[in-house]
Amino acid sequence: MSRSIDSMRQNLRLKNIFILSYHMCIPIALFHLKRSTRTDRETEALLLQLAIIPPLMSFHLPDIHHDWPFPRGNNPNYDEVAEESMKWLESFRIFSEDRQKSFRAIMPGLLASMAYPDHSRPHFRSACDLMAVLFAVDEISDRLAPEEARDIAESALNALRVPESERVRNEHPLVDLHRSFWARTLQTASETVKRRFIASYEDYVRAMIQEADDRQQKRVRKSMADYLALRRYTGAIKPSFDLLLLPSEISDEVLDMPVVKELEMIAIEMVAVANDIVSFNVEQARGDIHNLIIVIMDGDEKIDVQMAMDMVGEWYRKRGRDFVECLNQLPVLLEGEGDSEIHRLHEYARGLGNWVTANYEWSFECRRFFGEHTMEVKENVSKVGVFSMIGGLVKYKATSLVPST
Protein backbone atom coordinates (compact mmCIF):
# COMPACT_ATOMS: atom_id res chain seq x y z
CA MET A 1 0.00 0.00 0.00
CA SER A 2 2.73 2.47 1.00
CA ARG A 3 4.60 1.82 -2.27
CA SER A 4 1.52 2.58 -4.37
CA ILE A 5 0.90 5.74 -2.38
CA ASP A 6 4.52 6.80 -2.84
CA SER A 7 4.15 6.15 -6.56
CA MET A 8 1.00 8.29 -6.69
CA ARG A 9 2.82 11.04 -4.83
CA GLN A 10 5.72 10.94 -7.29
CA ASN A 11 3.33 11.10 -10.24
CA LEU A 12 1.73 14.21 -8.78
CA ARG A 13 4.99 16.14 -8.43
CA LEU A 14 4.66 19.01 -10.89
CA LYS A 15 6.89 21.99 -11.61
CA ASN A 16 6.66 24.54 -8.72
CA ILE A 17 3.86 22.51 -7.11
CA PHE A 18 4.12 19.89 -4.37
CA ILE A 19 1.23 17.59 -3.58
CA LEU A 20 1.03 17.10 0.17
CA SER A 21 1.67 13.47 1.01
CA TYR A 22 -1.50 11.56 0.06
CA HIS A 23 -4.03 14.36 -0.37
CA MET A 24 -3.79 18.04 -1.21
CA CYS A 25 -4.09 20.60 1.54
CA ILE A 26 -6.12 23.03 -0.55
CA PRO A 27 -5.10 26.36 1.04
CA ILE A 28 -1.41 25.60 0.63
CA ALA A 29 -1.99 24.32 -2.89
CA LEU A 30 -3.70 27.55 -3.87
CA PHE A 31 -0.84 29.50 -2.37
CA HIS A 32 1.63 27.63 -4.57
CA LEU A 33 -0.59 28.08 -7.60
CA LYS A 34 -0.63 31.84 -7.11
CA ARG A 35 3.15 31.86 -7.12
CA SER A 36 3.56 29.56 -10.14
CA THR A 37 3.92 30.57 -13.77
CA ARG A 38 1.19 28.28 -15.09
CA THR A 39 -1.31 29.35 -17.67
CA ASP A 40 -4.98 29.53 -16.66
CA ARG A 41 -5.69 26.34 -18.62
CA GLU A 42 -2.88 24.46 -16.86
CA THR A 43 -4.08 25.71 -13.50
CA GLU A 44 -7.65 24.59 -14.19
CA ALA A 45 -6.40 21.16 -15.23
CA LEU A 46 -4.34 20.83 -12.08
CA LEU A 47 -7.22 21.85 -9.82
CA LEU A 48 -9.46 19.33 -11.56
CA GLN A 49 -6.85 16.67 -10.93
CA LEU A 50 -6.61 17.67 -7.28
CA ALA A 51 -10.38 17.47 -6.89
CA ILE A 52 -10.40 13.75 -7.74
CA ILE A 53 -7.46 12.71 -5.53
CA PRO A 54 -8.80 10.32 -2.86
CA PRO A 55 -8.85 11.83 0.64
CA LEU A 56 -6.10 9.55 1.95
CA MET A 57 -3.69 12.06 3.43
CA SER A 58 -2.97 11.54 7.12
CA PHE A 59 -0.35 12.54 9.65
CA HIS A 60 0.37 12.11 13.32
CA LEU A 61 1.73 14.55 15.87
CA PRO A 62 5.25 13.95 17.16
CA ASP A 63 5.53 13.05 20.84
CA ILE A 64 7.71 15.95 21.96
CA HIS A 65 7.32 15.86 25.75
CA HIS A 66 7.79 12.23 26.75
CA ASP A 67 11.12 12.99 28.48
CA TRP A 68 10.63 16.67 29.38
CA PRO A 69 11.50 16.93 33.12
CA PHE A 70 9.20 19.75 34.27
CA PRO A 71 5.85 18.55 35.72
CA ARG A 72 2.58 20.36 35.28
CA GLY A 73 1.46 22.75 37.99
CA ASN A 74 -1.77 24.62 38.75
CA ASN A 75 -2.43 27.82 40.63
CA PRO A 76 -4.80 27.28 43.60
CA ASN A 77 -6.58 30.56 42.78
CA TYR A 78 -7.52 29.40 39.26
CA ASP A 79 -11.28 28.91 39.52
CA GLU A 80 -12.06 32.26 41.12
CA VAL A 81 -9.48 34.52 39.50
CA ALA A 82 -9.73 33.16 35.96
CA GLU A 83 -13.45 33.90 35.92
CA GLU A 84 -12.84 37.38 37.36
CA SER A 85 -10.37 38.07 34.59
CA MET A 86 -12.68 36.80 31.87
CA LYS A 87 -15.52 39.01 33.09
CA TRP A 88 -13.10 41.93 33.12
CA LEU A 89 -12.25 41.30 29.47
CA GLU A 90 -15.93 40.89 28.54
CA SER A 91 -16.68 44.30 30.03
CA PHE A 92 -14.74 45.92 27.17
CA ARG A 93 -17.14 44.38 24.59
CA ILE A 94 -14.38 43.56 22.13
CA PHE A 95 -16.22 40.59 20.62
CA SER A 96 -19.75 39.81 19.58
CA GLU A 97 -21.70 37.47 21.84
CA ASP A 98 -20.96 34.44 19.65
CA ARG A 99 -17.27 35.23 19.33
CA GLN A 100 -17.04 35.79 23.07
CA LYS A 101 -18.33 32.26 23.64
CA SER A 102 -15.64 30.97 21.31
CA PHE A 103 -13.07 33.08 23.12
CA ARG A 104 -13.99 31.49 26.44
CA ALA A 105 -13.14 28.10 24.93
CA ILE A 106 -9.52 29.28 24.54
CA MET A 107 -9.30 29.24 28.36
CA PRO A 108 -6.57 31.88 28.86
CA GLY A 109 -6.94 31.54 32.62
CA LEU A 110 -6.07 27.84 32.44
CA LEU A 111 -2.83 28.65 30.62
CA ALA A 112 -2.05 31.24 33.28
CA SER A 113 -2.77 28.71 36.03
CA MET A 114 -0.28 26.24 34.58
CA ALA A 115 2.32 28.87 33.66
CA TYR A 116 2.28 30.76 36.98
CA PRO A 117 1.33 28.08 39.53
CA ASP A 118 3.09 29.73 42.49
CA HIS A 119 1.96 33.34 41.99
CA SER A 120 -0.02 35.02 44.74
CA ARG A 121 -3.59 36.04 44.02
CA PRO A 122 -2.77 39.62 42.89
CA HIS A 123 0.10 38.46 40.70
CA PHE A 124 -1.94 35.61 39.30
CA ARG A 125 -4.70 38.08 38.38
CA SER A 126 -2.17 40.07 36.34
CA ALA A 127 -1.04 36.86 34.64
CA CYS A 128 -4.64 35.90 33.77
CA ASP A 129 -5.26 39.40 32.43
CA LEU A 130 -2.15 39.30 30.24
CA MET A 131 -3.13 35.94 28.74
CA ALA A 132 -6.60 37.36 28.01
CA VAL A 133 -5.08 40.49 26.45
CA LEU A 134 -2.72 38.49 24.23
CA PHE A 135 -5.37 36.11 22.96
CA ALA A 136 -7.70 39.02 22.27
CA VAL A 137 -4.93 40.73 20.28
CA ASP A 138 -4.32 37.49 18.39
CA GLU A 139 -8.00 37.08 17.54
CA ILE A 140 -8.26 40.66 16.28
CA SER A 141 -4.89 41.08 14.58
CA ASP A 142 -5.26 37.97 12.40
CA ARG A 143 -8.04 39.83 10.57
CA LEU A 144 -6.24 43.18 10.18
CA ALA A 145 -4.25 44.72 7.37
CA PRO A 146 -0.73 45.84 8.36
CA GLU A 147 -1.78 49.50 8.59
CA GLU A 148 -4.67 48.70 10.93
CA ALA A 149 -2.48 46.42 13.05
CA ARG A 150 0.14 49.14 13.30
CA ASP A 151 -2.36 51.81 14.41
CA ILE A 152 -3.87 49.66 17.15
CA ALA A 153 -0.49 48.31 18.29
CA GLU A 154 1.09 51.75 18.61
CA SER A 155 -1.92 53.05 20.52
CA ALA A 156 -1.74 50.04 22.85
CA LEU A 157 1.95 50.68 23.46
CA ASN A 158 1.23 54.30 24.32
CA ALA A 159 -1.42 53.12 26.77
CA LEU A 160 1.17 50.88 28.46
CA ARG A 161 3.68 53.72 28.66
CA VAL A 162 1.10 56.12 30.12
CA PRO A 163 -1.56 53.96 31.82
CA GLU A 164 -3.08 56.99 33.59
CA SER A 165 -4.06 58.47 30.21
CA GLU A 166 -7.77 58.65 29.44
CA ARG A 167 -9.48 56.83 26.63
CA VAL A 168 -9.80 58.91 23.49
CA ARG A 169 -12.80 59.06 21.19
CA ASN A 170 -13.13 56.19 18.67
CA GLU A 171 -10.28 54.34 20.35
CA HIS A 172 -10.25 50.58 19.75
CA PRO A 173 -11.28 48.76 22.96
CA LEU A 174 -8.07 46.73 22.80
CA VAL A 175 -6.19 49.91 23.68
CA ASP A 176 -8.18 50.51 26.84
CA LEU A 177 -7.81 46.82 27.69
CA HIS A 178 -4.02 47.28 27.69
CA ARG A 179 -4.31 50.43 29.79
CA SER A 180 -6.45 48.70 32.41
CA PHE A 181 -4.20 45.60 32.54
CA TRP A 182 -1.02 47.58 33.09
CA ALA A 183 -2.52 50.00 35.62
CA ARG A 184 -3.54 47.05 37.82
CA THR A 185 -0.25 45.23 37.31
CA LEU A 186 1.82 48.26 38.32
CA GLN A 187 0.20 48.20 41.77
CA THR A 188 1.98 44.95 42.75
CA ALA A 189 4.75 44.42 40.16
CA SER A 190 8.42 44.25 41.06
CA GLU A 191 10.72 46.94 39.75
CA THR A 192 12.27 44.24 37.55
CA VAL A 193 9.00 43.75 35.69
CA LYS A 194 8.39 47.49 35.42
CA ARG A 195 11.81 47.88 33.78
CA ARG A 196 11.61 45.00 31.35
CA PHE A 197 8.00 44.34 30.31
CA ILE A 198 7.34 47.28 28.01
CA ALA A 199 10.62 46.78 26.11
CA SER A 200 9.65 43.13 25.54
CA TYR A 201 6.17 44.18 24.46
CA GLU A 202 7.60 46.63 21.94
CA ASP A 203 9.50 43.75 20.30
CA TYR A 204 6.24 41.79 20.16
CA VAL A 205 4.37 44.69 18.55
CA ARG A 206 6.99 45.16 15.83
CA ALA A 207 6.90 41.43 15.05
CA MET A 208 3.09 41.38 14.97
CA ILE A 209 3.09 44.18 12.39
CA GLN A 210 5.66 42.32 10.29
CA GLU A 211 3.56 39.14 10.48
CA ALA A 212 0.53 41.08 9.25
CA ASP A 213 2.60 42.32 6.30
CA ASP A 214 3.80 38.78 5.53
CA ARG A 215 0.22 37.55 5.64
CA GLN A 216 -0.99 40.27 3.26
CA GLN A 217 1.88 39.58 0.85
CA LYS A 218 1.43 35.77 1.10
CA ARG A 219 5.11 35.65 2.05
CA VAL A 220 6.43 32.35 3.41
CA ARG A 221 9.76 32.66 5.22
CA LYS A 222 12.57 31.05 3.26
CA SER A 223 14.23 29.02 5.99
CA MET A 224 13.81 27.84 9.55
CA ALA A 225 16.37 30.41 10.74
CA ASP A 226 14.59 33.22 8.90
CA TYR A 227 11.24 32.10 10.27
CA LEU A 228 12.43 31.80 13.89
CA ALA A 229 14.02 35.25 13.73
CA LEU A 230 10.44 36.61 13.55
CA ARG A 231 8.56 33.83 15.37
CA ARG A 232 10.50 34.33 18.60
CA TYR A 233 8.63 37.60 18.99
CA THR A 234 5.21 37.15 17.37
CA GLY A 235 3.76 35.10 20.21
CA ALA A 236 4.54 37.65 22.97
CA ILE A 237 6.39 34.88 24.78
CA LYS A 238 9.10 37.09 26.27
CA PRO A 239 6.57 39.54 27.81
CA SER A 240 4.83 36.48 29.27
CA PHE A 241 8.13 35.27 30.74
CA ASP A 242 8.66 38.71 32.26
CA LEU A 243 5.57 38.18 34.44
CA LEU A 244 7.34 35.24 36.07
CA LEU A 245 9.31 37.99 37.82
CA LEU A 246 6.26 39.79 39.24
CA PRO A 247 7.24 38.84 42.83
CA SER A 248 11.03 38.92 42.28
CA GLU A 249 13.72 41.55 42.12
CA ILE A 250 16.65 40.43 39.96
CA SER A 251 19.22 42.84 38.60
CA ASP A 252 19.69 43.37 34.87
CA GLU A 253 23.29 42.32 35.35
CA VAL A 254 22.19 38.84 36.39
CA LEU A 255 19.32 38.53 33.89
CA ASP A 256 21.58 39.60 31.04
CA MET A 257 24.17 36.89 31.70
CA PRO A 258 24.71 34.83 28.50
CA VAL A 259 23.53 31.60 30.13
CA VAL A 260 20.26 33.25 31.20
CA LYS A 261 19.69 34.80 27.77
CA GLU A 262 20.29 31.39 26.19
CA LEU A 263 17.80 29.72 28.55
CA GLU A 264 15.20 32.32 27.62
CA MET A 265 15.88 31.89 23.90
CA ILE A 266 15.53 28.11 24.04
CA ALA A 267 12.31 28.30 26.06
CA ILE A 268 10.88 30.92 23.69
CA GLU A 269 11.62 28.74 20.67
CA MET A 270 10.14 25.65 22.33
CA VAL A 271 6.90 27.44 23.22
CA ALA A 272 6.61 28.91 19.72
CA VAL A 273 7.37 25.69 17.86
CA ALA A 274 5.14 23.52 20.05
CA ASN A 275 2.35 25.94 19.22
CA ASP A 276 3.12 25.59 15.51
CA ILE A 277 2.93 21.80 15.77
CA VAL A 278 -0.42 21.64 17.54
CA SER A 279 -1.96 24.53 15.57
CA PHE A 280 -0.93 23.32 12.10
CA ASN A 281 -4.28 21.68 11.40
CA VAL A 282 -6.30 24.81 12.16
CA GLU A 283 -3.87 27.18 10.47
CA GLN A 284 -3.47 25.27 7.21
CA ALA A 285 -7.24 24.96 6.96
CA ARG A 286 -7.72 28.73 7.04
CA GLY A 287 -4.77 29.40 4.74
CA ASP A 288 -2.32 30.77 7.31
CA ILE A 289 1.36 30.63 6.33
CA HIS A 290 3.06 31.75 9.57
CA ASN A 291 3.80 28.23 10.80
CA LEU A 292 7.09 26.33 10.94
CA ILE A 293 5.59 23.14 9.49
CA ILE A 294 4.53 25.08 6.39
CA VAL A 295 7.96 26.74 6.16
CA ILE A 296 9.71 23.36 6.28
CA MET A 297 7.33 21.86 3.70
CA ASP A 298 7.89 24.84 1.42
CA GLY A 299 11.70 24.61 1.62
CA ASP A 300 14.02 23.56 -1.16
CA GLU A 301 13.39 19.83 -0.64
CA LYS A 302 9.57 20.21 -0.67
CA ILE A 303 8.88 17.45 1.87
CA ASP A 304 5.45 16.23 2.97
CA VAL A 305 3.62 17.08 6.16
CA GLN A 306 4.63 13.96 8.12
CA MET A 307 8.30 14.40 7.30
CA ALA A 308 8.04 18.04 8.36
CA MET A 309 6.32 17.06 11.62
CA ASP A 310 8.99 14.47 12.37
CA MET A 311 11.86 16.85 11.58
CA VAL A 312 10.43 19.62 13.73
CA GLY A 313 9.66 17.14 16.53
CA GLU A 314 13.27 15.94 16.58
CA TRP A 315 14.54 19.52 16.55
CA TYR A 316 12.24 20.31 19.49
CA ARG A 317 13.47 17.39 21.57
CA LYS A 318 17.06 18.48 20.91
CA ARG A 319 16.25 22.00 22.12
CA GLY A 320 14.77 20.45 25.25
CA ARG A 321 18.08 18.70 25.94
CA ASP A 322 19.87 21.99 25.30
CA PHE A 323 17.66 23.68 27.89
CA VAL A 324 18.48 21.14 30.60
CA GLU A 325 22.19 21.37 29.81
CA CYS A 326 22.03 25.16 29.97
CA LEU A 327 20.15 25.00 33.27
CA ASN A 328 23.07 23.10 34.76
CA GLN A 329 25.38 25.99 33.83
CA LEU A 330 23.65 28.53 36.07
CA PRO A 331 25.64 29.91 39.00
CA VAL A 332 25.68 27.37 41.81
CA LEU A 333 23.07 27.92 44.50
CA LEU A 334 24.81 27.37 47.82
CA GLU A 335 23.04 25.76 50.76
CA GLY A 336 21.56 28.28 53.12
CA GLU A 337 21.49 31.17 50.64
CA GLY A 338 17.73 31.50 51.13
CA ASP A 339 16.13 34.38 49.26
CA SER A 340 19.33 35.47 47.53
CA GLU A 341 19.41 36.84 44.00
CA ILE A 342 20.88 33.55 42.75
CA HIS A 343 18.06 31.67 44.47
CA ARG A 344 15.52 33.90 42.71
CA LEU A 345 17.36 33.34 39.42
CA HIS A 346 17.01 29.58 39.83
CA GLU A 347 13.29 30.03 40.51
CA TYR A 348 12.99 32.07 37.32
CA ALA A 349 14.84 29.41 35.31
CA ARG A 350 12.53 26.70 36.65
CA GLY A 351 9.63 28.98 35.75
CA LEU A 352 10.83 29.04 32.12
CA GLY A 353 10.86 25.25 32.02
CA ASN A 354 7.42 25.15 33.61
CA TRP A 355 6.11 27.63 31.00
CA VAL A 356 7.14 25.17 28.27
CA THR A 357 5.13 22.47 30.04
CA ALA A 358 2.15 24.78 30.53
CA ASN A 359 2.03 25.73 26.87
CA TYR A 360 2.00 22.08 25.78
CA GLU A 361 -0.50 20.84 28.38
CA TRP A 362 -2.91 23.73 27.81
CA SER A 363 -2.90 23.03 24.05
CA PHE A 364 -4.64 19.71 24.70
CA GLU A 365 -7.15 21.01 27.25
CA CYS A 366 -8.53 24.12 25.60
CA ARG A 367 -10.59 23.75 22.42
CA ARG A 368 -8.52 26.12 20.32
CA PHE A 369 -6.78 23.45 18.25
CA PHE A 370 -8.62 20.13 18.51
CA GLY A 371 -12.21 21.06 19.40
CA GLU A 372 -14.08 18.30 21.18
CA HIS A 373 -11.22 15.84 20.63
CA THR A 374 -8.73 17.59 22.93
CA MET A 375 -8.21 14.87 25.55
CA GLU A 376 -8.47 12.06 23.01
CA VAL A 377 -5.69 13.64 20.95
CA LYS A 378 -3.49 14.10 24.03
CA GLU A 379 -3.96 10.48 25.14
CA ASN A 380 -3.07 9.18 21.69
CA VAL A 381 -0.05 11.35 20.78
CA SER A 382 2.41 8.67 21.83
CA LYS A 383 0.18 6.01 20.21
CA VAL A 384 0.09 7.90 16.92
CA GLY A 385 -3.08 9.95 16.77
CA VAL A 386 -3.89 10.25 13.09
CA PHE A 387 -5.44 13.19 11.25
CA SER A 388 -7.16 12.56 7.91
CA MET A 389 -7.02 15.67 5.77
CA ILE A 390 -10.33 16.14 3.97
CA GLY A 391 -11.41 19.39 2.37
CA GLY A 392 -8.74 21.46 4.07
CA LEU A 393 -9.61 20.94 7.75
CA VAL A 394 -8.12 17.77 9.13
CA LYS A 395 -10.41 15.34 10.94
CA TYR A 396 -9.00 13.42 13.88
CA LYS A 397 -9.22 9.71 14.52
CA ALA A 398 -7.14 7.75 17.01
CA THR A 399 -5.51 4.64 15.56
CA SER A 400 -2.91 2.10 16.53
CA LEU A 401 0.53 2.28 14.99
CA VAL A 402 0.82 -0.09 12.04
CA PRO A 403 4.30 -0.37 10.48
CA SER A 404 4.54 0.42 6.77
CA THR A 405 5.15 -2.53 4.46
UniProtKB/TrEMBL annotation:
Its EC number is 4.2.3.-. The chain crosses the membrane at residues 12-33. Keywords: Lyase, Magnesium, Membrane, Metal-binding, Transmembrane, Transmembrane helix. SUPFAM superfamilies: Terpenoid synthases. One of its GO terms (biological process) is isoprenoid biosynthetic process. GO terms for molecular function: metal ion binding; terpene synthase activity. It comes from Leucocoprinus birnbaumii. InterPro entries: Isoprenoid_synthase_dom_sf, Terpene_cyclase-like_2. This is Terpene synthase. It comes from the Eukaryota. Its cofactor is Mg(2+). Pfam families: Terpene_syn_C_2. The keyword Metal-binding applies. Belongs to the terpene synthase family. It is an enzyme of class 4 (lyase).
